[in-house]
Every structure is written in structure tokens, then in C-alpha cells.
Amino acid sequence: MRRRGVNPGDRCGIYGSNSPEWITAMEACNSQAVTYVPLYDTLGPNAVEFIINHAEVSIAFVQENKLSSILSCLPKCSSNLKTIVSFGNISDMQKKEADELGVSCFSWEEFPQLGSLDCELPPKQKTDVCTIMYTSGTTGEPKGVILTNGALMAEVLSVDQLLFLTDRVVSEEDSYFSFLPLAHVYDQVIETYCIYKGASIGFWRGDVRYLLEDVQELKPSIFCGVPRVYDRIYTGTLAKVSAGGGLKKKLFDFAYNYKLGYLEKGIPQEKAAPLLDRLVFEKTKQALGGRVRILLSGAAPLPKHVEEFLRVTSCSTLSQGYGLTESCGGCFTSIGNVYPMVGTVGVPMTTIESRLESVPEMGYDALSSVPRGEICLRGSTLFSGYHKREDLTNEVLVDGWFHTGDIGEWQPNGAMKIIDRKKNIFKLSQGEYVAVENLENVYLRCPLITSVWRTKTMETIITEYYK
User: Fold this and answer.
1) Which CATH number fits domain 190-420: 3.40.50.12780, 3.40.50.1240, 3.40.50.300, 2.70.70.10?
2) Is the pTM here over 0.70, yes or no?
3) Distance CA 307, CA 298 (A)
4) CATH superfamily assigned to domain 11-124
5) Helix 47-55 to helix 67-77 angle, to the nearest 10 degrees?
6) Locate the AMP-dependent synthetase/ligase domain: which residues (predicted)?
7) Which of 124, 162, 359, 413 has the fewest CB atoms in 10 Å of its CB?
8) Contacts of 217 (CB under 8 A, 6+ apart)
């Protein structure tokens, strides 16, 4: 990269699915004090072009099947972007197309041959920008979240402490299944943590049809998922139990309630019902390869009944977390061996301070006997601002506190429960507010519905569209 004129502080785009090449490009940027910028097109058809120009990306590492997409952007991006490196091969025709616009292209094998092993690594500081991660914006343009080296490392160490509290020390014997998008901070933090601890990382093929087949092949001990994935495990397991007949169902229910009772008493996962784990719940564990011992859930609320079910049947600890790109991933996490935290996102992680701010127009009082209000955060994992958008930064960062827009409720045990979204409500003509996200979660439990879009008509009637 330095041979191509990429210097410390410059921006490097990474565009593609999870792969060893993605991680290699990211760590190359880290070693050279170059800011990496994930590129992905799920933010809209022109998102890649916008991010390249907005972040002033000068070099991009690109998955082979994404080359045509990024080449189509070049006429409007070549003022900044001067080098493209394919994760695999690149054709002579593609090289010629880029060269005509002043952009040089290299295959994965060609690019390292430009470099030298004699160069010294540049100095790096905690305050240096590690990455700019773009998220969806209310104005239609993605927002670039600035995260420093210090924020990333503080988050990694917080994950380490969380797992220590659940008696799950990660070592070189562990393996992690990488399928959540590396372009998002959630998976980036976990994979960085695995590298820090020396654990192995296995990458899925990128085809959801073979997801479970890939899991069975890798047999990971660490699995991070989102509620939709865990809900499929839940419904699939119950369907198999029901198909086994009435006697099998009764035995399963007995084992379930027996173990649940011990978990509720505070008995650790592995000591609650070891015999029943081997005789009854082993099949649920096998659905994730048979070796999993750490389950993490994030990105959206995990339904309480699914969380309880997996804590009982997976033979693994399960921690549900809450976080945002602006908080560098998880800022709240439940402790896997503390059962009363089921249905909550747990307690603040060690690097974060949290408070609730009253939202009187919605009836939420942070000082009431049941404290409710907007979740506000500050701490060492917090973002530094939105790239080139000081106006948006000032809207959400007030006196050092980041206003998340999410409504939380403190529980008596110190855990946080997410109950609402400040901006995701409709006000009806009679002055009442409706949190339509709750309706969406109910509808999505029906297997016939794959997506829900809700809006409010001019007559203030809530309407739902189903697919």
C-alpha cells in the first residue's frame, strides 16, 4: 500500500463478503495506520459511490464478484480512488477499463509483490482514526461513524471481561463461525477479539442455503447470531419434538422444566442438569455443530421465550447485548449465567457509562419508581463524531452524552430492558403514541410473513403491508 502512495491517515475501502482476504486487508490497514472504510451496497444503489467520494477512499480491496460494481462507479470516483486490489483474479479487460480512468488494478497474488519486508511500521496512537463505518441516515445519505483505535481496543477488552464473568475464557482451542457481515461493527469486534485471543475463525461460503452445512463442517465453539437465526433454531427444534409423538413431547417438557427450575435458582449452565443435557438437549447443541459453548445475540431484541429456550436447550451460555455503531458495538450485555437477566440486554459494559433521560411527550420519566427514558451513553468506546457532518454530531452528542434514540427501563437488578424507540412511534389524532415496532415483532412470528412495512396514512390509521 505504501508503494502505491497510501500513507498513514489515508482511507482504504474494503468491499466484499466475509473472507480471510477481508481480515487481511483490515489488518494491513491497522499495521500501516491507514483508516479502513467498509463498502457495502445494502444502504442503497449509490451507497458505494457516495462512500468512496465522501470518505475520499484512495485504495480499495474488492471481492472478485464485486469488481464490475466498483468499476461502474469509477467515472464518478476516480479523482480519489487510484488503486483497486481484487480478492482473487482480475481480467485484462477490467484492468484496461480502469486504466483508462487513471486507476491501477492488481490481483491478490500480484499486489504483495510490489512491497518490501524492510519498511518500518508507522507509529500509531489511541486517538488515531481506525475506521469510518457508514450507517443509514435519515436524510437518505449514509452517515460515517468515526471510531478510533482506542475505542476498538476498549470494546475488545470489554468482551474479554464479559466472557470472564461467565466463566468462558477464550483460548487457541476455540473457533468462531464468521457469517454476520464484516462490514458491520458487531462482527468486526468479535473477529478482532478472536485474533487477540488466538482463536480460529472459519468463514461461511456466503450462501444462506448452505449455512447450517457450513456450521456442521466447522463445528464452532463461539457463535454470534441475530434473533432471526435463533428463532429458526427455536421453531425447528420444537417442530422436531412435536413430530416425535406425544411421549417424546412429554419427556422433553419434563426435562425442560426441570433444568429451567435450576437455572432460575442461579445454578450455572453446565451444572443445572448435565444428565438431561446428554440425554435430551444434545440434539439442539448438534444443530450448531456440537461444540458451541458461547452464544451471543445482538443487532435486534431477542424474544424472551427464544432466549429462555436456548439457555435451557443449547447446553451453552447465551448473552444478549445491545449496541450501536456509534458505541463501537455492544454497550450493554447480559451475563450468561445470571438467569434473571433473561428478557433484558443486561448491564453496561465496563467501558461505558449510561443514564436515562426523561421523554415527557411520551410519558417516560427517568426519575420515577420505574425509571424509563432515552438511553444516553458516554465512555471510551464511544464514536468521535460523524465524518464531515458536524451538524448531525451535535444533534446526538450533547455535553459528552450520546443520545441513542432508544427508550430503556432500568430493572431492579441493574439490567436494562429496551421498551421503545423514540423516533419509531406514531402519534394518533387523539394524542396517543403507538410503538409500531411491537406490532411488527408479533406479525413476524407468523411463518407466512417474511417482511413487514408499516406506515401512517394521512387519516392517522396504522397500516401494515405483508409479503
Assistant:
1) 3.40.50.12780
2) yes
3) 12
4) NAD(P)-binding Rossmann-like Domain (3.40.50.720)
5) 50
6) 2-387
7) 413
8) 202
